[in-house]
Amino acid sequence: MLILLNTYPLLVSENMVFRSKEATMQGSVSVMVYSLSGLDKLNEENVAAAMAVVEETGLSRILVTDSAGKVLYDTRETGSAVGRYALYTEIVQALTGNDTFSCIYKNGAFRSRASSPVLYQNQIIGAVYAYEYDTEQAALLEGLQGNLLRLSAVIGVVVLLLSLVLSRALTKKIGQLLTAIRQVREGAYSHRAEIRGRDEIAQIGEEFNSLTDRLQTIENARRRFVSDASHELKTPLAAIRLLTDSILQTDNIDPDTTREFVSDIGREAERLSRITEDLLRLTRLDNSVLDAASVVDVLPVLEQVLRMMGLVAQEKGVDLTYDAAEGCTVLSSRDELHQVIYNLVDNAVKYTPAGGAVQVSLELEQGQVVLSVADNGSGIPEADLPRIFERFYRVDKARSRAAGGTGLGLSIVSDTVKRRGGTVEAANRPEGGAVFTVHWPVAKGGDAV
Length: 449
Ligand code: ADP
Known about the structure:
Elements: H1 2-36, H2 44-52, E1 61-66, E2 71-74, H3 89-95, E3 100-106, E4 109-120, E5 123-134, H4 136-185, H5 200-249, H6 255-286, E6 294-297, H7 298-316, E7 319-324, E8 329-332, H8 334-350, E9 357-365, E10 368-375, H9 397-402, H10 409-419, E11 423-428, E12 434-441
Parallel strand pairs: 7-9
Antiparallel strand pairs: 1-2, 1-5, 3-4, 4-5, 6-8, 9-10, 10-12, 11-12
The protein binds adenosine-5'-diphosphate.
The site of adenosine-5'-diphosphate (ADP) has 22 residues, from helix 8 and helix 10.
């Protein structure tokens, strides 16, 4: 850019000077040729007489030669060339009938040469040659060159300073970002990058902060999950230890007590295996390990679950009824659907006291398959509603445990349904009790299994 600034204007002005020189020099030469044009033959006297009337043109040297190139007139007084042959290229060219002009800029001066033939009745009788040595215009050009150089130097310094300041600011911001990244890498998830401004680095900082927010949320959830899971696993293990210690440390323990303790151990072991099974299922869902999907008719699966749960409900004195439409097909697997329906119906029966009722309905609604499981039990406190799909979240821990719950059932339902593009909601019924509603996109085509 600076090189262009230093060369282009100079080239243009040089060119302009060349062109103006060409016009004035050729003009002067034509005037001289014109004043010689009346002569039939050139000699020193008549040329001197003709040239005397030509105005002073400011040229450095004027030569007039005859047709053989012998100088008849020379404006230079010391070292005059009159009487000698001047075979400059320009004169030779002029004697062969051509007008010439050349101009060069060298050593702080414009040196211009122009020549033209002198004709008499279409015969070349001589040539006029003019030479100009001009330092005035050259000085102007040099002044311009100097100014451009100074301007370039100022621009260069300003650009350098600006880029220094900018790169300082940029390095500082990148440094802040790097510090934040390192802090977060070391585990300080609450650390945030504070970068002011609206530029790209500040935007990267904002993106980094929202990424860290997410990381912190995930990390908190992970910690809570690990602590909840270990707590859940510790409780049955502690019970098993206690029961085995009691058996081992009690002398002459009677067989009935032993049997009772061993059956308690069995129940706790069963609980442990239920928790681990649920945890494994959730891990598979987290890792997106899904059963192969196909178009499945929900009704047969629902009927199978209800046949199984019917006995449990009957035993508890809960009335379990259903109302189902045909053709409710979704993209899933039988096992997944079984798990979802089973968990919801099992909860409804579990949290409904004897004499209560559980109603299941399956229908098609605006391109969606809708399953709802409603009971008239205790319902769920409004404050707990948004959290009941969280892992290990229970409204009443003791009651859930006593009922054999793991606190993972609704998480499994929610994750499974979401992975297949569906949704699940929980609400309280105005008439009392809870209702869980699942929406799946309806799947068409293929043979439903
Ligand atoms: P749990 O194994 O404890 O049943 P879930 O994840 O299935 O775990 O349910 C979480 C909690 O939601 C339960 O502990 C219970 O407090 C509440 N809940 C679930 N279904 C119902 C229901 N139908 N009525 C009342 N409370 C319910």
